[in-house]
Write a structure and sequence with these properties.
The complex is a heterodimer.
Chain A: H1 2-19, H2 24-43, H3 48-94
Chain B: H1 6-33, E1 47-51, E2 58-61, H2 62-81, H3 92-112, H4 120-135, H5 148-166, H6 171-176, H7 186-230, H8 236-239, H9 247-278, H10 281-302
Antiparallel strand pairs in B: 1-2
Classes of the chains: A mainly alpha, B mainly alpha.
Chain lengths: 95, 303
């Protein structure tokens, strides 16, 4: 029983960690976007306002994939262990 | 109108009270109804009350109550800003209100075009509700936007609007738009259609919730660290988490203030872009023209 609960907790933590690998993509993408925005502002300082707001908008859109991974990780850490342990306890009681 | 008369002042005070009292009520409700807990815990929205219903009991959660309180607070602010509006020499608060309205109207004109100018109030409502909901975490309330049910509800509303404007050029055109550019891609288009509200809801909720979780983790880590470092100090000084002064506030400036306002702006801009991009302007005008011609023909036949 303890072993099973430990396995569930460990697998949930491992899954959450693996899910957050998706954070690499948005990081690279947003870094690229900001670099290009800096270049653009350096070339045309008068267009700073428009470039900044467009860049923020694009960054937030690029962040979405990372946020999907984050939601999965949050569910795996805070919601899934409780549910799975409850399921385990009820099935063990039924046997 | 006399701006110094006692009636006017009483009205002012009433509007300000309507803006502030809901937030105090929210704080009081939180203090009274939150069960005591050991240390720092991360939980979802507390269930304050349950209303018995025929099929299933309906839970009234913290996020529902807090978002209603925020709505009341916004109502109070709007009433205060527009109290005593007059033509000619404007008052200071009237200038603030006009500036806000003009900003939102400019945003709508820039992103959607003249046809959609009626969207101004809706966009302003989304902006203020979302921003103030996120900012309500600054006074210790549970931010309603960190609950997927709240942002999901807004996303469904926006999805209904998008579909309504897509249907304006007739149902046949709406169905045909899924087979664009090739009919084989219809399943993909269907998925991307459903993904719109899902991604909007998850983006907003994930940003606010991750900010909350990171702040709580940092705060609990700092209190543990300060206990290790200053635990040897005598009396209250040893128990008091000294490191938690100031450092979490810097995080809060980013996660609560900057991120909350940015997400409100993004949600509003995405709403405007999706609605105006989904609306087939050319087809709608063609359809209108065809209908008018048909009407004229009918009238000619009748006469």
């Amino acid at each position: 029983m303890e072993l099973a609960i430990g396995l569930i907790l460990g697998a949930c933590a491992l899954g959450a960690g693996l899910a957050m690998i998706a954070g690499i993509g948005p990081g690279i993408g947003e870094g690229n976007a900001v670099a290009k925005a800096c270049e653009a502002i350096g070339r045309q300082p008068e267009s700073k306002g428009a470039v900044t707001s467009t860049m923020l908008f694009g960054c937030v859109i690029a962040e979405t994939t990372g946020l999907y991974a984050l939601v999965i990780a949050i569910l795996l850490i805070f919601v899934a262990p409780g549910r799975l342990v409850d399921l385990l306890v009820t099935t063990m009681a039924g046997l | 109108m006399n701006h110094k008369s006692p009636r006017f002042v009483i009205g002012d005070v009433a509007c300000l009270a309507l803006a502030i009292v809901p937030l105090l009520v929210g704080m009081a409700l939180k203090v009274i109804l939150t069960p005591p807990s050991e240390g720092i815990v991360i939980t979802g929205a507390q269930i304050y009350f349950t209303v018995p219903m025929p099929l299933q009991d309906m839970p009234i959660t913290e996020s529902q109550i807090n978002s209603w309180l925020v709505i009341l607070s916004i109502l109070g602010l709007c009433l205060y800003l527009t109290h005593g509006v007059r033509a000619g020499v404007p008052t200071r608060r009237q200038l603030a209100a006009e500036w806000l309205v003009e900003k939102v109207d400019g945003m709508v004109r820039e992103n959607m075009g003249e046809y959609f100018m009626g969207f101004g109030p809706f966009v302003a409502a989304i902006l203020s509700l979302s921003a103030l909901s996120s900012l309500s975490s600054l006074i210790g309330l549970y931010p309603p936007t960190s609950d997927i049910n709240v942002t999901g509800g807004w996303a469904i509303l926006v999805f209904a609007l998008i579909t309504y404007y897509k249907l304006k050029a007739g149902p046949w055109h709406y169905i045909k738009s899924f087979g664009d550019p090739v009919a084989v891609l219809a399943p993909m288009n269907l998925i991307s259609e459903v993904a719109t509200p899902v991604s909007m809801a998850f983006r907003h909720y994930g940003n606010i919730l991750s900010g909350t979780i990171v702040s709580v983790l940092v705060a609990s880590g700092l209190s543990g660290l300060s206990q290790k470092l200053f635990g040897w100090l005598p009396g209250v000084l040893g128990e008091f988490p000294l490191l938690r002064i100031g450092i979490p506030a810097a995080l809060s400036v980013y996660f609560d203030v900057f991120s909350g306002c940015l997400q409100a702006y993004i949600f509003a801009v995405l709403t405007m872009l999706y609605v105006s991009n989904g609306f087939p302007q050319d087809e709608y005008e063609k359809r209108k023209l065809r209908r008018e011609q048909k009407k004229i023909k009918m009238q000619e036949q009748q006469s």
